């Protein structure tokens, strides 16, 4: 006999259903408001009681688990979100924030930068963020998007993220983050969207592919295990980079990778923020993160490199 339980038939669609659950709940609460304030209050109280009931049951389950099993369950995005809601996640805030920062270090490193966790106290995460090209406002915006998104996804209970001054850098092309976030907000509103692009996972090491993300043409490449994404635009000749391939420069170590424009032959360092290696200028990088189990790219709005 074939087991055709409804839950089995819906497994493939489950991630999307859970991601949209919060929106559906809010929509239902708004619909209750049509019956007046009292009706919405009753609906919210009912939701609160149900959440408390399931939270109490979840707490008993977690208490009965050994540490490895609890850690394994917490690795699932849906389970982790439920544990966080009820304050039951096996990892502390500092551990989760540290892991989140580790996840964005390859992207920060592509800008010649890094991030240091200084501490977590009273709901405030304090960071020292260094690096980023002084002449590229989109680079600064996407750095902020990457760091803040990663931290808030791992620790939604935090109240604020503070960035303190890093040690000054003698290189005039690099500024210390004495406050990167303030600098970005002063320059332009931080707007943008994280777009799921699961197709990026199909890129093989050394492969370059073109994608359209929210109407924006981008070029993505995999170098080793890391993914790098840039706007599909060569600043040297103002043409598309379609057809570009990765090259290793003679005499450089394994892992070196440059993108060569198929039109003007300009070369860009694909690992280090797309800096041009045979002239001035650079490509426009976009951050890549795993969000809700899917590879996603941040596309800031109204920012040009």
TrEMBL record:
Keyword Iron: yes
Any one Pfam family match given in the protein's UniProt record, by short name: NifU
Coiled coil: none
Residues annotated as domain Rieske: 195-297
PROSITE patterns membership: RIESKE
The keyword Iron-sulfur is annotated on this UniProt entry: yes
Keywords: 2Fe-2S, Iron, Iron-sulfur, Metal-binding
General function of this protein: May be involved in the formation or repair of [Fe-S] clusters present in iron-sulfur proteins.
Protein name: NifU family protein
Annotated source species: Nocardia albiluteola
């Amino acid at each position: 006999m074939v087991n055709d339980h409804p839950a089995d038939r819906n497994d493939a669609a489950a991630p999307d259903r859970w991601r949209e659950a919060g929106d559906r709940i809010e929509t239902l609460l708004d619909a209750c408001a049509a019956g007046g304030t009292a009706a919405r209050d009753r609906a919210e109280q009912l939701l609160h009681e149900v959440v408390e009931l399931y939270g109490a049951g979840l707490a008993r389950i977690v208490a009965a688990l050994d540490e490895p099993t609890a850690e394994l369950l917490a690795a699932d995005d849906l389970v982790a979100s439920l544990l966080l809601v009820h304050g039951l996640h096996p990892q502390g805030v500092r551990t989760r924030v540290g892991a989140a920062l580790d996840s964005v270090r390859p992207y920060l490193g592509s800008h010649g930068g890094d991030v240091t966790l200084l501490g977590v106290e009273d709901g405030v995460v304090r960071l020292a963020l260094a690096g980023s090209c002084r002449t590229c406002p989109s680079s600064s915006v996407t750095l902020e998007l990457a760091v803040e998104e990663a931290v808030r996804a791992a620790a939604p209970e935090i109240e604020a993220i503070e960035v303190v001054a890093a040690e000054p850098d003698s290189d005039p092309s690099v500024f210390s983050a004495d406050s990167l976030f303030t600098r970005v907000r002063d320059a332009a509103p931080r707007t943008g969207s994280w777009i799921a692009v699961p197709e990026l996972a199909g890129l093989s090491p050394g492969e370059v592919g073109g994608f359209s993300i929210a109407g924006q043409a981008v070029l993505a490449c995999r170098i080793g295990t890391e993914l790098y994404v840039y706007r599909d635009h060569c600043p040297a000749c103002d043409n598309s980079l379609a057809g570009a391939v990765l090259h290793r420069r003679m005499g450089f170590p394994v892992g070196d990778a440059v993108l060569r424009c198929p039109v003007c032959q300009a070369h860009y360092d694909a690992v280090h923020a797309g800096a041009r290696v045979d002239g001035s200028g650079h490509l426009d990088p976009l951050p890549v993160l795993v969000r809700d189990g899917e590879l996603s790219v941040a596309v800031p709005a109204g920012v040009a490199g």
